[in-house]
Amino acid sequence: MPLKIYRRPGSTVWQYRGTLAGNRLRGSTGASDKETAQRIASEIENKFWKRGLDGKEKALTWPKAVALYLGAGKPSRFVAPLVKHWRDATIADMNAGSIRQSAIDLYPNAKNSTRNRQVLVPTLAIINHCAELQLCPPLRMKRFKVETKIKKPVTLEWINAFRRHSDRTDIGVLALFLFATGARISEALAVRWVDVDFKTRTVLIRQSKLGNERIAHLPADIFLALANLPRDREPFAIAYTTARDAWDHTCASAGIEHLTFHSCRHGFATALHDKGVGVKTIAKAGGWKSAQHLFNTYLHADEDPTVTDRLFDTDEKKDAENG
Q: Model pTM?
């Protein structure tokens, strides 16, 4: 654990103590000012890791770190390219600058969001898992700057228009499924008939982003749409690129605004919220890791400037207007 400072009873001088990589360190900072003492303790800790007093950091190779991470049941998504890239490295060779450069080398034409998601996040997760095992120091670093784009949520009216103009029944049902369950496109395409329980009206969704599973309820519309799909193939036995091309074609032929697969997940959250469902309930139903992330990213404001009229929409007023 990190070094902590403390004062002995009756003393004005701050001491430090703690355990780093199995080594118990303790001593005097020689300072009576708390802020100075904290800085001195931090410098002592940094020097320990830089020298690699017990040799663990230098001996810990990247492949070994990955093996420890995966052996603990952590997600393997995006890890394979990182194993190949750093195959001859030790953790001591890796720092914020080299990790950022690896993201550029691995994905030269990708967006910063992709580099963050597929390189920085899993690399830091692996290193910091080993830090928890006291095999190396923890690492923090800044992400690549990402411009936030607000996704417009689909509505039920949009979904219905999309389905009416879809040349492929499965693409129309796919759109409805994304909206009705809040599933990500990768999760929807992975659904198999064995995952669908028509007796309980539920579907097993394997959450690719979080590495776990959830059971989603099937509202009547999607329940019937799935039931009418042929059984000689899986519900959405479609390659991603095929689904994307068919999706784009349907939007164009329907004359509706082009919204993405992920706009359906936004629509799922926004529509439920507009109907009075609580944020925590929506987060659970849609498989969000936290209600805060759902609130900050997926819920969209009502653009109607007259929304404040609803403050005075009392039951008494409605009864009076209805005669």
A: 0.59
